[in-house]
């Protein structure tokens, strides 16, 4: 069963890679792999978004997030501002162009997912989303507990 699950996961990852590569010209300005970062910045903008938080949220090394942010700044989609509570740090904000491009990217992905799920019932979609959310949380929790498990051995 685990082998079958791993094969299915590889297939899902391939589908996601293909989805990410199928980029509409409307959001070609977004560096590959950064739509999620743009989306996270938008959700955290009101309180100020820090690169360190993004790295933790995405499970990425801070240097990886730093390169993504630099690419977004160069593309004119994100600006850095001095953090009012800590002048050494900066907060990230979407530009108007960043908001427009993110809206276009999300609309594109929503349309692709809707097309892929057109033969699914609302119940199937809800069940799939719930199972996928549970799987992701359990896998993340297992990862976060791994140091404790290793120490107990």
Tell me about this structure:
- One of its GO terms (biological process) is response to stress.
- GO terms for molecular function: DNA binding; DNA-binding transcription factor activity.
- The protein has 153 residues and is mainly alpha-helical.
- The protein folds into two domains: 2-119, Winged helix-like DNA-binding domain superfamily/Winged helix DNA-binding domain (Arc Repressor Mutant, subunit A), CATH 1.10.10; 120-153.
- Helix content is 67%, strand content 10%.
- It has six helices and two strands.
- Strands 1-2 form a two-stranded antiparallel sheet.
- A hairpin with a 2-residue loop joins β1 (78-83) and β2.
- α2 (35-44) crosses α5 and α3 (51-58) crosses α4 (62-74).
- The longest helix is centred in the last third of the chain and has 31 residues, at 122-152.
- The chain is globular and about 50 Å long.
- It starts with a helix and ends with a helix.
- The mean pLDDT is 86.
């Amino acid at each position: 069963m685990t082998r079958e699950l791993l094969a299915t996961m590889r297939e899902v990852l391939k589908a996601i890679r293909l989805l990410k590569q199928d980029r509409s010209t409307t959001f070609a300005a977004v560096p590959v792999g950064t739509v999620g970062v743009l989306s996270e910045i938008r959700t955290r903008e009101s309180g100020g978004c820090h690169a360190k938080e993004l790295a933790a949220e995405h499970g990425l090394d801070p240097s990886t997030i730093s390169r993504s942010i630099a690419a977004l700044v160069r593309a004119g989609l994100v600006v850095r501002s001095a953090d009012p509570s800590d002048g050494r740090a900066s907060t990230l904000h979407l530009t108007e162009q960043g908001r427009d491009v993110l809206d276009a990217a999300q609309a594109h992905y929503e349309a692709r997912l809707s097309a892929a799920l057109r033969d699914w019932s609302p119940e199937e979609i809800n069940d799939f989303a719930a199972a996928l959310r549970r799987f992701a949380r359990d896998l993340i929790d297992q990862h976060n507990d791994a140091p404790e498990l290793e120490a107990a051995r």
